[in-house]
Amino acid sequence: MIGHANDQQARSLILCVEDEPDLRRDIADELSEAGYAVIEACDGREALDLLDASRPDLILCDISMPGLSGYDVLRSVRAKGPDYAETPFVFLSALSDPREIVEGKRLGADDYLVKPIDYDLLLATVDARLRQIARIRSVQKVRSPDLDLATLSKRFTLTNAEARVAIALTEGKTLAEIAKAFGVSRTTVAYHLRNIFQKTGVNRQTELVAVLMHGYPPREM
């Protein structure tokens, strides 16, 4: 399927992790024709090396690979910290075992595509996940009128420091920007964010912003 690039697609970088070279090339070609920038990894180790040098907007990853599995890659991505918490992660698998889906969701996967790949569904899934992230980021710039330290502290039992970090996140600030503004280390901000995740019951930054501003996580597309 040949799509037409739009502004969102042209700015989006997709990491495709797949050990089957022909399939990886086909997926990359479809994404490129749709207007996305694509980087490819033949296994989990190469994927993690690429993540040290680039910041993809979305990750497509096979589950069953030699060496590091897709689950291992997902764990490593989420372990990179809050900056990667909102990166959509979509699994690719030849199996449709519900247990695989449950395990992937438990680890923080956003979606699941079964091989042989339906490329229309692939492109629709990628577009939906990127639009969801774009929508969440756009509302981050609009601060809720009743969102203040006292409200957040009472609603989620946050400390003052945690509430300040939470408000800064809803304003669209990055962890580095928050650390600089508050005169603390990025590690300190990350520590507060982990506490906020625990107290609000979410584990993704996009869900956190929606919960803080509206009281509920974003709906699935």
Structure explained in plain terms:
- The structure is a single chain.
- By secondary structure, this protein is α/β, with parallel strands linked by helices.
- It folds into 2 domains: 7-139, Response regulator (Rossmann fold, 3-Layer(aba) Sandwich), CATH 3.40.50; 141-214, Arc Repressor Mutant, subunit A, CATH 1.10.10.10.
- It is 55% helix and 11% strand.
- It contains 11 helices and 5 strands.
- The chain has helices at 7-11, 21-33, 44-53, 70-79, 98-107, 119-140, 149-156, 160-170, 175-182, 186-200, 205-214; strands at 13-17, 37-41, 58-62, 89-93, 111-114.
- It has a 5-stranded parallel beta sheet with strand order 2-1-3-4-5, sandwiched between helices.
- It is elongated, with a radius of gyration of 18 Å.
- The two termini are 21 Å apart.
- Residues 1-5 and 217-221 have low confidence and may be disordered.
Summarize this entry quickly.
By secondary structure, the chain is α/β, with parallel strands linked by helices. It is 55% helix and 11% strand.
